[in-house]
Design the sequence.
């Protein structure tokens, strides 16, 4: 009973936080020479929004949402997300192994190179890719790569590359850091003393041990990917899910549509968080046993 | 032991840029060498803005025929001051609130997290757009100072929850240390703890947080610029050559605005957009160097602890705290 009450209270809190954040512009009106604060107006709109959210029987409910091409664009955006994510994980793993078995001197340079990308803004990468594709087209006259999503075309290749460029380095940096820490573990020393090669230790023992940490880190990767996808779809004018989202915002769509869109957008994050939760629970469970 | 070489060099570079930008009216051309059409001796038009980079125009010109390098120099002050100001405000408000949250009202922390749960799931760029749209989304007749105040409030608000939670986490970790615990046992008040035990940490963590927040503010202003949410609002005069609908231009010529107003020109005038983006990149790289150095200095405390922790079985947990840059003292006896 107590847990139920606290769960109810917490979800009410989440909802009110959501309403507060999204109606914040209404509190802060701009006057002639001061920023004005109107609470009454804010309260009215919040009440309206709440009512709207629960009027499921109304015909107008989610009307804009139903008009838009939600399923198609959502599929597109999510497939970009998934392809990029799998690509990132695979490439980051392979590169990490390559860097770790490289000779000491080269490894330091490579690590510094990877760390350098931490500071690169995502917009720079997107613009450079755009610039590159355009100059390629100008130089050759052929359209190898589709950039813009005009006339309902949904390009895959360039958006995926552009979107996953920076997260790849993010994950790679994390992997290198974790595996370097893992090398200090006693079992690594033991395995080395037994005469097992470096590659075998790395591939079979260490990677298996850092897998849970990777799952936990994937949330950040997905987060960066999502915001990058948002930027790329806006800049390349692709008719993806975020485009529908922008339409809803700019056309002043109803509150319920906004909520539905945001929920759909944060679905991947929720999934990965659930996975992370399971993994950490398993770790704790095994550790309780081993102790 | 601690070195601040990169920090000193980096911040003096940024300061130099800022001073040059503020002093711009005293030495730079007032109209940024405004020149749309180039005519030869007979008066026939031989060229039209945007011009590519050349000897006369170091970084080229934009569609309005203004020199990009002068615009960048002039606009730097707004970008830098906003980033710095927003970061300081975020850290001040968030830090104070976080410490209060941990020391005086720890039961509120989970509620605070719930209330701002939205920030965990929605990228800040989306929030920024939604929150700024009513004010900056269109040409507005409101005074510029008010628009800027509003924008700064929103920018501070976007970063506030994460800073608060982070500060609160750090405080929680510090409270667990033996010196604070023993101080509590001997009857110290909370204010005493803050004044005597936490203050040395507040300084170093505060600076580190500020530097991190400067980077994140730079990122978000840049992205908002792309969506036309310029700092200081939109300029009705607009971009030359677009009559209806008018294309908004940045009023202050800050860098994000330059990106936003030139972003559709990437095919005709890539220099007009790549220059401000690269400008951002350089600033972010400098600040990142500073951040790295500060973090390394903070890590000085941490080295001893890592060795000690590895004895214990709680590996995953130990790591996650180590990565967050938290530390505990060795003298735990």
Sequence:
């Amino acid at each position: 009973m107590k847990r139920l009450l606290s769960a109810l209270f917490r979800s009410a809190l989440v909802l009110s936080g959501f309403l507060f954040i999204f109606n914040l512009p209404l509190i802060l009106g701009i006057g002639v020479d001061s920023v004005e604060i109107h609470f009454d107006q804010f309260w009215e709109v919040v009440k309206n929004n709440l009512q709207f959210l629960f009027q499921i029987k109304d015909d107008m409910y989610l009307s804009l949402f139903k008009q838009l091409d939600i399923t198609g664009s959502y599929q597109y955006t999510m497939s970009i997300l998934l392809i990029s994510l799998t690509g990132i994980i695979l490439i980051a793993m392979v590169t990490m192994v390559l860097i770790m078995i490289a000779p000491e001197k080269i490894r330091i340079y490579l690590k510094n190179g990877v760390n350098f990308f931490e500071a690169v803004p995502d917009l720079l990468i997107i613009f450079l890719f755009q610039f590159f594709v355009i100059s390629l087209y100008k130089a050759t006259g052929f359209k190898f790569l589709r950039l813009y999503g005009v006339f309902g075309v949904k390009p895959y290749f360039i958006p995926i590359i552009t979107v996953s460029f920076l997260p790849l380095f993010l994950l790679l940096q994390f992997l290198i850091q974790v595996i370097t820490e893992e090398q200090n573990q006693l079992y690594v020393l033991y395995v080395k003393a037994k005469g097992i090669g470096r590659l075998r230790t790395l591939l079979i023992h260490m990677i298996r041990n850092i897998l849970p940490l990777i799952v936990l880190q994937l949330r950040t990767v997905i987060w960066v990917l999502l915001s990058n996808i948002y930027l790329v779809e806006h800049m390349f004018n692709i008719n993806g899910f975020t485009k529908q989202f922008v339409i809803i915002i700019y056309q002043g769509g109803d509150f319920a549509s906004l909520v539905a869109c945001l929920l759909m957008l944060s679905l991947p994050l929720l999934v990965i968080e659930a996975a992370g939760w399971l993994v950490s629970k398993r770790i704790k469970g095994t550790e309780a046993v081993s102790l | 032991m601690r070195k601040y070489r990169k920090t000193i060099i980096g911040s003096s570079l940024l300061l130099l840029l800022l001073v040059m930008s503020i002093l711009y009216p005293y030495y730079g051309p007032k109209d940024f060498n405004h020149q749309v059409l180039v005519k030869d001796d007979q008066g026939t038009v031989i060229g039209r803005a945007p011009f590519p980079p050349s000897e006369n125009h170091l970084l080229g010109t934009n569609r309005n025929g203004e020199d990009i390098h002068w615009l960048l120099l002039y606009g730097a002050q707004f970008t830098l001051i906003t980033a710095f100001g927003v970061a300081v405000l975020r850290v001040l408000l968030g830090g104070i609130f976080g410490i209060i949250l941990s020391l005086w009202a720890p039961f509120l922390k989970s509620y605070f997290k719930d209330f701002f749960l939205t920030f965990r799931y929605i990228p800040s760029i989306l929030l920024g757009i939604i929150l700024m749209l009513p004010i900056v989304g269109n040409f507005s007749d409101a005074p510029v100072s008010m628009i800027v105040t509003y924008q700064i409030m929103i920018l501070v608000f976007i970063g506030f929850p994460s800073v608060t939670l982070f500060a609160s986490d750090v405080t929680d970790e510090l409270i667990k240390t033996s010196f604070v615990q023993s101080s509590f046992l001997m009857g110290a008040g909370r204010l005493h703890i803050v004044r005597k035990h936490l203050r040395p940490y507040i300084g170093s963590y505060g600076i580190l947080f500020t530097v991190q927040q400067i980077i994140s503010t730079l990122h978000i202003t840049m992205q908002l610029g792309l969506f036309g949410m310029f700092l200081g609002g939109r300029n009705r005069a607009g971009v030359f050559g677009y009559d209806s609908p008018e294309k908004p231009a940045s009023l202050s010529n800050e860098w994000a605005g330059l990106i936003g107003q030139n972003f559709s020109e990437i095919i005709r005038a890539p220099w007009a957009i790549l220059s401000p983006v690269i400008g951002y990149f350089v600033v972010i790289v400098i600040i990142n160097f500073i951040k790295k150095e500060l973090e390394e200095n903070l890590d000085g405390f941490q080295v001893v602890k890592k060795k000690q922790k590895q004895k214990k079985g709680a590996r995953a947990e130990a790591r996650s705290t180590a990565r967050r840059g938290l530390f505990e003292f060795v003298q735990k006896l």
The longest helix of chain B spans residues 190-226.
